[in-house]
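Duplicate of #3305? Posting structure anyway:
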């Protein structure tokens, strides 16, 4: 099938590669423009552009570049922008969305599933509509969340979605007869900086879910401390907001529960164990507070 592909991050790459492996003709790859990254501000291509160039495919950065493209369908995977109605009227598009629609329509379905404590998530291949994630669904594939981090879950969903996409394109009954979404609609709002801020008033479950988003932080001794891995301990409750020493381990006390720090990253430093950070932090458990 002659296609145009729209995608941007790592999570879109498995679908692009799967389309080529299945023998589809991807006439054009549309991805977001280069971004400046790092302290030097060097321009960096998107993951999809790098993959497209590796596959020898043409790349563009503006939806206006679709004007002269004659294809049967478009495929959208984490492109990062809404597709206007006039474009969809000319090029029908499939979208690989990382949730079991209509649960978690929107920008951050993987992270919202983790924060909500969902036991199951998945991917939906749907026909794209101008409205946000409302289109009929061609197929869904399910996946247990377990204790996966956001990046781990996204990688597995990306592969699952690529397989489902190829199956839909290869199966006329699935491609031509999508089913209207049914069930409770929930919205996966974009995550804000405060979403990642760990606080003593959190439950232990919420604390660990935020850590699994992989950008969790708190403030100790006036400095930001990123927390990459942690686990609940059976230590008796300590005053909320205090730092607890457990032999060689360091932990943070919640209103109910104590969380041991397995891996952290202080400002301007490398990843390290909680104990390594504590030994160099020049703080004392008697006076240190986190918030």
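Output from current build:
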């Amino acid at each position: 099938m002659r296609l145009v592909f729209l995608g941007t991050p790592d999570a879109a790459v498995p679908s692009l590669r799967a389309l080529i492996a299945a023998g589809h003709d991807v006439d054009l790859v549309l991805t977001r423009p280069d971004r400046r990254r790092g302290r030097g501000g060097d321009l960096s291509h998107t993951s999809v552009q790098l993959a497209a160039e590796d596959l020898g495919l043409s790349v563009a950065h503006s939806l206006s570049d679709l004007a002269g493209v004659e294809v049967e369908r478009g495929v959208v995977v984490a492109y990062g922008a809404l597709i206007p109605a006039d474009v969809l009227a000319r090029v029908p598009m499939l979208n690989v969305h990382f949730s079991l629609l209509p649960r978690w329509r929107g920008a951050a379905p993987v992270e919202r599933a983790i924060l909500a404590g969902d036991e199951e998530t998945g991917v939906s291949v749907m026909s794209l509509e101008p409205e946000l994630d409302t289109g009929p669904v061609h197929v869904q594939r399910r996946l247990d969340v377990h204790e996966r981090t956001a990046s781990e879950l996204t990688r597995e969903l990306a592969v699952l979605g690529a397989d489902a996409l190829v199956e839909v394109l290869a199966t006329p009954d699935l491609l031509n007869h999508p089913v209207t979404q049914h069930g409770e609609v929930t919205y996966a709002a974009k995550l804000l900086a405060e979403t990642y801020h760990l606080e003593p008033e959190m439950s232990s479950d919420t604390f660990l879910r935020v850590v699994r988003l992989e950008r969790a932080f708190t403030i100790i001794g006036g400095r930001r401390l990123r927390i990459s891995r942690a686990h609940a301990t059976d230590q008796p409750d300590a005053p909320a907001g205090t730092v607890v020493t457990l032999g060689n381990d360091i932990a943070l006390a919640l209103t109910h529960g104590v969380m041991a720090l397995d891996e952290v990253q202080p400002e301007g430093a490398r990843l390290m164990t909680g104990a390594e950070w504590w030994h160099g932090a020049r703080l004392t458990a008697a006076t240190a507070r986190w918030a």
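Confirmed duplicate; merging threads. The chain has two domains: 2-188, 193-281. The two ends are 55 Å apart (CA to CA).
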